[in-house]
Amino acid sequence: MLPDGGTPLAAAAAVALLALYMRAVDRPGAVVGFVVAACLAAGAGWTGFVLIFLLVAVGTATSRRGQRQRRPIQVLCNGGVGAVAALAYGWGISWGMAAATGALGAALSDTVSGELGRRGGRTRLLLFGPEVPAGRDGGMTWFGTLTGLFAAALLPATAFAFGSFALRPALVIAGAAMAGNLLDSLAGATLQPHLGPRGNDWVNLMATASAAVLAAALA
Predict the structure, then answer these.
(1) Closest CA to 82 of 57, 102, 58
(2) Is 174 left (phi over 0), alpha (psi -120 to 50) or beta?
(3) Going by fewer Cβ within 10 Å, which terminus of the chain is more open, N or C?
(4) Smallest Cα–Cα separation from 29: which of 6, 103, 21, 63?
(5) Model-level pTM greater than 0.70?
(6) Which residues, 6 or more positions from 100, have their beta carbon under 8 angstroms from its beta carbon?
(7) What is the pLDDT of residue 65?
(8) Helix intervals (H) in 93-190
């Protein structure tokens, strides 16, 4: 399952350089991203590498280039849970792959729904509440929610294609990833205003950790 030799380091470097080139992270963020990607590649093999590559590539493609360069803490809160779970899988813990895929799927779903949702349609608080300005924490649009659902399914579908899961577990993990995204919106509207300047980072960590736990328990 583990790539041989220096393959995890080379794969991780490629992901970190891509993120830096696309201006998705600052330089310290790229260093942390390298560590996260290396853990995923080392623990989950080529599947782990492809998952983190898709998270970076798709997440960056849906963002306005260079407008939001993630700092190290943001990289950790989005990818750290998946990295730890992938290492657990590499150490023989069977649920680690499901947890890693769910966590990364939640991070991608949140990024895609947030970036695309603010570009069209009415933004409402938690989708059914009053109309709020685009980009407000907890604000949701139908378009953003649907694209977030597609993004939540992308990484489990990829892992399914690589033979990591059967169809039913892949569907369960996709649901866990979307649940993490929805929890992010709920916590953003309720808890984040009370969590200080790093509130969004803690909410992201909560969302990815919750998705990981759900995926590990149910898949």
Answers:
(1) 102
(2) alpha
(3) N
(4) 21
(5) yes
(6) 40, 43, 44, 48, 51, 81, 82, 83, 85, 86, 89, 212
(7) 54
(8) 96-117, 142-161, 167-190
| Cβ-contact 142, 169 below 8 angstroms | no
CA 192: distance to chain centroid? 19
Burial label for 63, CB within 10 Å (0-12, 13-18, 19+), is: buried
Long-range contacts of 84-91 (CB under 8 A, 24+ apart): 84/39, 85/43, 85/212, 85/216, 86/39, 86/40, 86/42, 86/43, 86/44, 86/48, 87/39, 87/42, 87/43, 88/43, 89/1, 89/43, 89/44, 90/1, 90/2, 90/42, 90/43, 90/44, 91/43
pLDDT digits (tens, 9 = 90+) for 23-44: 889 999 999 999 999 999 999 9
Amino acid symbol at 135: G
Question: Residue 52 belongs to what H/E stretch?
Answer: helix 27-61
- Tokens 């919750």 locate to 210
98-102, 184-188, 210-214: lowest mean pLDDT where? 184-188
Contacts of 114 (CB under 8 A, 6+ apart): 144
CA atoms within 13 Å, Cβ hemisphere of 127: 14
How far is 90 from 105, CA to CA, in rounded Å? Answer: 19
Q: For the chain, how far is it from start to end, CA to CA, in angstroms?
A: 20
